[in-house]
Amino acid sequence: MDKIKELTKGKAKSLFSTADNEKLVMHFSDDTSAFDGKKKEALLGKGAVNNQFNAFIMDHLAENGVETHHIEVLNSNDSLVWSLKMFPIECVIRNRASGSICRRLGTEDGLILENPLFEFFLKDDDLGDPLINDEHIISFGWATKEQIDEMKKLTYKVNSILTELFIKSNLILVDFKVEFGVCSQGKILLADEFTPDGCRLWDSETLKKMDKDRFRQGLGDVVESYHQVADRLGMNIIVD
After folding, report:
1. CATH of the domain at 28
2. What is the pLDDT along the chain (240 residues), one digit of tens a residue?
3. C-alpha count within 13 angstroms, C-beta hemisphere, residue 13
4. For the domain that residue 89 is a member of, what is the CATH number?
5. Are residues 110 and 209 in the same domain?
6. Full-model pTM
7. Rounded CA gap, 7 and 18, in Å?
8. How far apart are CA 171 and CA 163, in angstroms?
9. How many domains are contained in the chain?
10. Domain-located, residue 57
């Protein structure tokens, strides 16, 4: 499936049109950013590992009842996905406190939460992706009550499936963000990506951080850690 025209370019991914109006090519680049784009760097090989990591996770979720926009891997850095009408919303689940919630609430990093905590954020880099709630979403017309309920249900299901998957590989799924969109048939599908760029994964014994916090915090070995996570999950990452 050939790429025709670049439709959107994000901080680490681009979407391209194809000859089929319902399908897009999602390209993963080596670009890496943090703090709403204030820190940037190209990390050799990150695009390839994220593309194939994402495909593995999306396929695993689909096998366990979560429909996604992922169709197939095309090459090391490109995947074919369904074209969706995206919600301008990020859905976040936290199993432990880390990152922004520690700054907001003054909690200790790594605090185990009694129950998974769900939060909505508006996708807007200029505003710093502000925390929002159901009432904001309905009032501004970003989604309906029924769509909100479905996104919450699916996000909790993703958490349950992936927590189990990662713990078998001696990894703790600390938190993650996911996005959703509506396909031409009107179904809500899991979209965007699930990679170490958008979740926190810690070694279950040492609590070593094996995700993008290594880049945010200047810990080094970012791509190497991504590969280690992929290896634990049994992936064979191919770089063209």
Report:
1. 3.30.200.20
2. 799 999 999 999 999 999 999 999 999 999 998 886 678 899 999 999 999 999 999 999 999 999 999 999 999 999 999 999 999 999 999 999 999 999 999 999 999 999 999 999 999 989 999 999 999 999 999 999 999 999 999 999 999 999 999 999 999 999 999 999 999 999 999 999 999 999 999 999 999 999 999 999 999 999 999 999 999 999 989 877
3. 21
4. 3.30.470.20
5. yes
6. 0.95
7. 10
8. 9
9. 2
10. yes
**Burial of 113: CB neighbours in 10 Å, binned 0-12, 13-18, 19+:** middle
Q: Are residues 94 and 183 in the same domain?
A: yes
Number of other residues whose CB lies within 10 A of the CB of residue 197:
23
In a domain, 228, yes or no: no
Given 16, 49, 82, which residue is the final one in a domain? 82
| Same domain for 168 and 89 | yes
Which of 82, 99, 117 is the endpoint of a domain?
82
Range of the domain at 217: 85-221
